[in-house]
Amino acid sequence: MREPLPITVLRHAVLLLFVAIAMWPVMDVISISIRPGNRLRTTELELVPYDATLDSYRRLLADATFWRWLGNSMLVAGAVTITGVTLASIGGYAFSRFRFVGRQAMMISILTTQMFPATMLLLPLYLMIARLGLINTYAGLCVFYVSTALPFCVWQMKGFYDTIPHSLEEAARIDGCSQWVAFRRVILPLASPGLVITALFSFMSAWSEYIVAAQILQDRDMFTLPVGLKSFQSSLSTQWGLYAAASLLVSLPVVVVFILLSRYLVSGLTLGSVKE
Amino acid sequence: MATVTFRNVNKRYPNGFHAVHDLDLEIADGEFVVLVGPSGCGKSTTLRMLAGLEEVTSGEILIGDSVVNDVEPGNRDIAMVFQNYALYPHMTVRQNLAFGLKMRRTPKAEIERRVADVAETLGISSMLDRRPRELSGGQRQRVALGRAIVRQPRAFLFDEPLSNLDAKLRVQMRAEIAALHQRLQTTMVYVTHDQVEAMTLGQRIVVMDGGVVQQADAPLAIYQNPANRFVAGFIGSPPMNFVRGRLEGDVFQHVGGEVLLANGDSAGGELPPTDGGSPPPRQLPTRQERPSAWSGPAWLGVRPEDLALDAGGPVLGEVTLDVVEQMGHESMGYFRLAGERCAMRLPADSGLAAGDHVRPRLRPGAWRLFADDAEGKRLL
Ligand SMILES: Nc1ncnc2c1ncn2[C@@H]1O[C@H](COP(=O)(O)OP(=O)(O)OP(=O)(O)O)[C@@H](O)[C@H]1O
Ligand SMILES: [Mg+2]
């Protein structure tokens, strides 16, 4: 049956409205980043101003501090991703496949941690990290990020393993694998969409985080990009062009990572393996 | 090649469910044993304990001469074919077949040779580089079978391997599995709830119900001499007819009438020639041999093929046909007697239809008597 025309029009109108709402700020930032000088506000409506320039990008890319911060962010986000994915892939497997004392309680407590806003955990976690002497270290930051991202990741992975039939690892064990090898050679490859989602989540949460990083990192040299960017906003004059250009460059890796990994995000990887 | 022995094996699941009771079973080297029973009777549990996928709660399982209770599945040198195939979806057919050998560090050349061999035998050579999702159900089942064969294990375990195939393919694969056993002469333990599969494949059938072995014997022996009412009703299709009533002396009385079970002098006189598979004639014990309390409630059991208009024995009763199923070489008539659904054999051209009244006769001696209690032990 064909949809009546007014409905089609309405549907597209609503969708376009939301696309516009989502895209507007991004367009605005792009526009600011290619304006010469420090024009945050302008009366012009064009997206690309008549005197557009890539000056801000040039200055930014020539700036060693920017590269330094980028490296810091890469380091932290990379470490968080690797640790998070490793721990979540193993932890989620345990929750999915084994029945042990305290399993239920642990799963509920994992879920419970997700009910508190992250800012509420800021103070207690900060104190813990301070006691551990990890203030102004990447390790401190990583501990914070991993511990806040892990519950979601473990839950996510558990859900993923639950969809993989038990008979696959049983077949592998009969084929001569230990439980661990069966996990590594059969289950883990099948869980790769789950791993990708977990990795993306860990990476993005660490990459764009500001509040915690601003508390834990104190040397300008140690800053991650979000904290570094904020320092462009000086009390006297904010270099809006630079700021906007940097914001866009910061988002770029996330977009790239997403595009690279998204081809693994296909569902139905276990298709054809078993018959339900 | 190895024998398989269950010694007083029990399985209790963590939730307290007692799935297998005191299982004692010896499977000879090279024997094809079929575990059969209704859903939930503990067949899979038994097989999975043998595979090492479930722990044994008490008792011992031996493969060859060694107790394997605490041996890892991979070290038992057995192969298993799963109902849902359980192929590794991220590997090609070739990798699926080779996986077990690779895990056992078989030399590469040897792996290649064996995989090619098995693929040839099963007719899947052209699919070696496909992934499971690119195969049809029947092809997947072949790959699953191949993955087991290529390992050359001491015993094969099958858990309802054919139940996901359509009827025609099932018959074909059944024949292939039988041929495979002929060729390999390896011990095979096969689980199914399909009694036709059990009858056709098994050298010995183990009938289970409620976690308890009801009877273990050759297919024909089980068919002819079922140990109890459960086995009698489970093996055979359509199932054996049961009529509840009372045995008084030589006469079985039921609501639909009386059947004189005495032999020789009763209607029909001499026995008809026994054609292939027909059970030996049965006789009531003479009055002297008979236990004193030989009368009381009982079930009379008679197979549909032993119930016919011209069977020559006593009349079971006057009944009305509900349904007549034409099968070409003969037809089956269904009716109710004493509340139980019964079936009888009719000639294909009998012209009888639903609603007709008939007087089915027993083939002399081809009946059983079962106790009228929960156990339903065969009396005669
Ligand atoms: N993990 C488990 N925990 C508790 N009870 C179980 C478990 N697995 C099976 N059971 C119970 O044990 C009984 C036997 O199960 P099993 O799988 O051996 O049956 P089956 O004979 O193979 O039946 P089917 O023909 O349906 O496959 C069933 O009643 C089942 O509910
Ligand atoms: Mg089963």
Topology diagram in text:
The complex is a heterodimer of chains A (276) and B (380).
Chain A: H1 5-33, H2 55-61, H3 64-97, H4 103-113, H5 118-131, H6 138-162, H7 166-174, H8 179-190, H9 192-207, H10 211-216, H11 225-230, H12 240-262
Helix pairs in contact in A: 1-12, 2-12, 3-6, 3-9, 4-6, 5-6, 6-9, 7-8, 9-12
Chain B: E1 4-12, E2 18-27, E3 32-36, H1 43-51, E4 58-63, E5 66-67, E6 78-81, H2 93-103, H3 108-122, H4 137-149, E7 155-159, H5 167-184, E8 187-192, H6 195-201, E9 204-209, E10 212-217, H7 219-224, H8 229-234, E11 241-248, E12 251-254, E13 257-260, E14 295-302, E15 307-308, E16 319-326, E17 330-337, E18 340-347, E19 357-358, E20 361-362, E21 368-371
Parallel strand pairs in B: 3-8, 3-9, 6-7, 7-8
Antiparallel strand pairs in B: 1-2, 1-4, 4-5, 9-10, 11-12, 11-14, 12-13, 14-21, 15-20, 16-17, 16-19, 17-18
Helix pairs in contact in B: 2-3, 2-4, 3-4
The structure holds adenosine-5'-triphosphate (ATP) and magnesium ion (MG).
Residues 13, 15, 17, 19, 37, 39-45, 193 of chain B line the site of adenosine-5'-triphosphate.
SSE order of chain B, as H and E? EEEHEEEHHHEHEHEEHHEEEEEEEEEEE
Please report the first level of CATH classification, the CATH class of the largest domain in chain B: Alpha Beta
Number of domains of chain A: 1
> What is the CATH class of chain A?
Mainly Alpha
Number of helices of chain B: 8
Order of helices and strands of chain A: HHHHHHHHHHHH
Bound molecules: adenosine-5'-triphosphate, magnesium ion
Q: What does the largest sheet of chain B look like?
A: 6 strands, mixed
CATH topology of the largest domain in chain B: Rossmann fold
First-residue to last-residue Cα separation of chain A: 33 Å
| Count of individual beta strands of chain B | 21
Report the major sheet of chain A: none
Radius of gyration of chain B: 25 Å
- For the biggest β-sheet of chain B, the strand order reads 6-7-8-3-9-10
Content of β-strand of chain B: 25-35%
Beta-strand content bin of chain A: under 5%
CATH topology of chain A: MetI-like fold
